[in-house]
Amino acid sequence: MSAPLTAGALADLSDPQDALQRLAAMAEGWGLNVRPSDAGGLAMRGEGWAVDILPAPGGLSLAAEAGDEAILRGLKEMAEFMLADLSAEAAERLRWSDGARPGAPAADFREWTYLRRHAVMPGLDRLVFACADAARYAGAPMHVRLLVPPCDGSAAQWPRQKPNGGLAWPAGEATLAARVYTVRRADAASGEIEVDAVVHGDDLLAGWAARARPGWRLGVLGPSGAPPLDGPLMAGADLCALPALARILAASAGREGLAVVAAPAEAAAYLAPPAGIALKILPPDAGAEALADAFLEAAEARPLSPSARWWFAAEAAGVRRVRGRLDALGVARGRRDCVAYWRA
Question: Which residues contact 242 (CB under 8 A, 6 or more apart)?
């Protein structure tokens, strides 16, 4: 296993204690796992990453640790965004110990070339891309951030590094649309990568693919976010989150638990859960609250283990419902991932 990537920085803020309180409130509002540290600062923890913030002469000391370059870049972007809410000048003056290459693409940026698409079930299509570096997407990290240009990608402007570790994004007619998707499969031998996307509503990728022609290009940041694999699995998902759940289940041999989904009947074969994980399928038009309630009812009908790993991804209203109930049950934030994939 490779050593984690690390970077440090100093944020020059005039009132470090006030800044710590405001950063803690911001992190809490985002649902991050944040707590006071023994050293008088803040400790934020997530899957594959850690950030420690401490008072220091002249401001706050930031120390970031991540399992891969995509997560480390994301932590730097998060730091820039949070600091900008306190002081735009301090955010711009931030400099990280591992350096930056202003004007260069992000270290985890690649281009993908569109090849073809086909349906995998009602409402879900598979898009196939080519990438010379497909092997980097064949490991455990399963999420990528796709950057969709307002054209075929041949003359697209991609984000570039800033001195403070953030990214400068193109504006105006060159503005990119960006959204996170799950890599369903990557084949290093063929150089092909598969991504499944819903084909209705305002899905960004499906809308782009409807007009795309073979040879069109997308920008990609990542991958990051390995499946949660420790403890019994309590999972729920709607159609948008089905590809991510499929990746989790594929890596969950020998685990026990349950999965509740709102999807077509074909989801049973698509997900192929291991023997120890019970699958319940609701109609695909079940509302967000109905999915949340069915998931919670099924989960609470089982003995609640403190080692259970909770994962729920769906429309925002359902996610809020699940998050509130898990708060009431006392489920630690480090044992759960509740992610809003879209908003009605």
Answer: 124, 196, 261, 263, 267, 270, 271
Q: What is the tens place of the pLDDT at every residue in 143-171?
A: 999 999 987 777 899 999 999 999 999 99
Percent of the chain scoring above 70 in pLDDT: 99
**Amino acid at the residue 68:** D
Residues 15, 84: Cα–Cα separation, whole Å: 15
Classify the C-alpha dihedral 176-181-186-190 as positive or negative. Answer: negative
Query: pTM of this prediction?
Result: 0.90
> Range of 306's domain?
233-342
Cα dihedral 279, 305, 225, 262, rounded to 10, equals: 30
CATH number at residue 325: 3.40.50.80
In the chain, which stretches have pLDDT less than 70?
A: 1-2, 201-202
Whether residue 214 sits in one domain with residue 136: yes
Domain end call among 224, 251, 266: 224
> What's the full length of the chain, in residues?
344
314, 237 in Cβ contact below 8 A? yes
- Cα distances (angstroms) measured from residue 309 to each of 7, 245, 337: 29, 13, 8
Report angle CA 217, 222, 228 to the nearest 5 degrees: 135
Q: Cα separation of 47 and 28, whole Å?
A: 16
Do 111 and 141 lie in one domain? The reply is yes
| C-alpha neighbours within 13 Å on the C-beta side of residue 300 | 13
Out of 203, 224, 245, pick the residue that ends a domain. Answer: 224
